[in-house]
Amino acid sequence: MAGLLAALFTALLSTTIVATALPTIIADLKGSQTAYAWVITTALLANAASTPIWGKLADIFSKKMLVQSSIIIIFVVGSIIAGVAHNVPILLAARVVQGIGMGGLTALVVAIIGSIVSPRERGRYSGYMGATMAVALSGGPILGGVIVDSPLGWRWCFFVCVPLAVIAFFLLQKTIRIKTERAENISIDWLGATLLTAGVSVLLIWVSFAGKAGYYDWVSQESAMYVGGGLLLLAGTVLVESRVTAPIIPLKIVTERTTDSPSSRPSQWDWGCSVRRRSWDSTSRPRAVSRRRSPEFSRFRLSSEC
């Protein structure tokens, strides 16, 4: 369990630790104001788009092997590239790689806990996960501000996740013993995955930039095009998923009592809002932070708004 919580903590920390470092990062890389939002949004897009695919891969391959691959091969590589990036395009590409690894970590940690923990004990382990999330979401901006103000520099906001990921890898190797139960006749619905990825990405881009200076208003022709296109893609996803034999997201899951019960909705809402709020805080006020506030001030402000 310690390895799973360490992996989850590393994934969440990589999202929030850059919040207070963004002004320094963009200024050092000579990026534009647009880059502020994209540093966060690209990671969130890759995370959201890859999560259902990771879940389907968990039905075919070993969950332990997949979570170790996502944390070492993908996440660590993305963190190292981001740390050595010398311009904004390379940094954004590295954030995409990080986002794919983060999607695997968050999805597979929950899948493994569901496989090895009995239903009677899952409430207690959900509490452990909630505490890990709270520490990562609250401590990330503080740690990012400390690193930026220190002689280490902003690049260590990415490098600091590497040793944490390596520790999580060895903890997983030592503590997790899970039997691979490969389902029969399972295949990946690539068309459904593509439509789902495109729909979620379009809506996330719309939410990320609507209402900001230099983009478009919440109520505008551009917003209508984004929302209409995203909903159309998601409607196509529902149509495809209802007809294939191995859907990427089974539609019947939304009608099951476990996932549709009122008691499960607050935790789902809190999870989404907390992660989105962190990314929104770090991208919606870049001018004020970069012009008047130091990373030290910003980290305490973001931490106090938990």
What does this protein structure show overall?
Its main location: membrane. The chain is mainly α. The chain folds into two domains: 1-178, Up-down Bundle (Growth Hormone, Chain: A), CATH 1.20.1250; 187-250. It has helices spanning 2-16, 22-28, 33-58, 63-84, 88-116, 122-149, 156-159, 161-175, 190-209, 221-241, 257-260, 265-284, 286-292, 295-304. Helix 3 runs antiparallel to helix 12. The longest helix has 29 residues, at 88-116. The chain is globular.
Task: Name the features.
14 helices; mainly alpha; globular; 306 residues; Growth Hormone, Chain: A; 75% helix
Measured between the Cα atoms of the first and last residue, the distance is 26 Å
Label the structural class: mainly alpha
CATH first level of the largest domain: which class?
Answer: Mainly Alpha
Count of individual beta strands: 0
Query: Overall mean pLDDT score?
Result: 77
Q: Which word captures the global form? A: globular
Number of helices: 14
Radius of gyration based on Cα positions: 19 Å
Order of SSEs: HHHHHHHHHHHHHH
- Stretches where pLDDT is under 50 for at least 5 consecutive residues are 262-271, 273-293, 299-306
Total individual domains: 2
**Main beta sheet, described?**
none
Q: What fold name goes in the CATH topology slot of the largest domain?
A: Growth Hormone, Chain: A
- CATH superfamily caption of the largest domain: MFS general substrate transporter like domains
Summarize the amount of helix as a percent range.
Answer: over 70%
- Return the CATH architecture of the largest domain: Up-down Bundle
Strand content: under 5%
